[in-house]
Amino acid sequence: MQYLNINGTYVLFNDVTTPLVIIATKPQVPLRANPNWFCFLGSQDYLFPFMVLNCFVNPVLSFLGLFVNGLCLIVLAKGGFRKPSYILLFALVLADSMNMFISLDFPSRIRYFGPVKTKPGYCTFEYDAIMNQYLFVSQEFFNFVGLWGRTINATIPMIITMERILAVYFPVTFTRVVTPKSITASCCASYVIWLPHIIVQSFYRRLLYVQLSNGKVVAITTATEFLFNNFSILYSFTAYFLEAMTSWVPVCFVCLGCILIGIKVSVSISQRRKLTSLRKEQQWSPRTTRTLLTTCLIFAVTHAINALIGTLVTIDNKTPLLTYLLVEIAEFLNILNCTSNFLVYFFLNKKLWRVLLQIIRRRKLL
């Protein structure tokens, strides 16, 4: 058994579980299970692949993604925002870039694999007070930006799908309703609508100092009283609404929309072959449709697998290391989706490719 001193009280640990009870002069109170006390439980067989993904593969891929997404943003900005499709792609790339901040959360890696760990498995910051506070604030910053981007990343593809449905099924309405101003307003709304929830989530965690039985003081991140006191409401909102709106709802919406658009495009192509004059009457661009739909399909496939993993595995106070590995694999798929913009935009849209080449040539001339 082990005892941790928390603000003058003692928390009882055993070797394989989270705290059991608080032992003090006060009446004994059950301590709520918190997975942040221990990082990994059970077999350590999957520690190395988890470490490779968590500390090397996903962060490196995220850095690469930020670089190529930066190129995408520059090219889209140079192309101008007169076309609604460029505005949608710009908003999506920006959200993807924010999304990858979660994988760049270096304080979490230190909590997992810090070089001065008292005991393997503790999720602790074991430095001086200033450094511990810096790591905690940095962790909250990366999570704030990353989670905000993740929710927007699930919303923009639905707007893109709806825009393409209007373009191919209701071309007259499309030209009247889908304008740069309306698309800009929709994209801004997708950013703003999720912001209150992300701000509320920033009040879920706090930094708590814990004295180990050997006298060493370490810092952990644990739930705040705000989360404990409002757990039922917050859990219901997260589990039944937020999870659905960032996983299965957009995936199903995008898949259904792509099927409907694919049917319409196939019919239009068939008709155009029979009647060449129909090409002049076509109000939507096949190139733009191809670019936008490919982006949405990559989103749907990666998020469907991600959502399936999230549904099948749970993070709680007895989470085995294999579960963390599966979650990290899901994160890898999420990063692949976020970094796919460069390939999709420049290989499927020759106009954007020409803009990129013009920028590169101008840089060389300078």
TrEMBL record:
Its main location: membrane. It is found in: Membrane. SUPFAM superfamilies: Family A G protein-coupled receptor-like. One of its GO terms (cellular component) is membrane. PROSITE patterns: G_PROTEIN_RECEP_F1_2. The keyword Signal does not apply. The chain crosses the membrane at residues 46-74, 86-104, 183-205, 217-242, 248-270, 291-315, 321-348. Keywords: Membrane, Receptor, Transmembrane, Transmembrane helix. Residues 68-345 form the G-protein coupled receptors family 1 profile domain. This is G-protein coupled receptor.
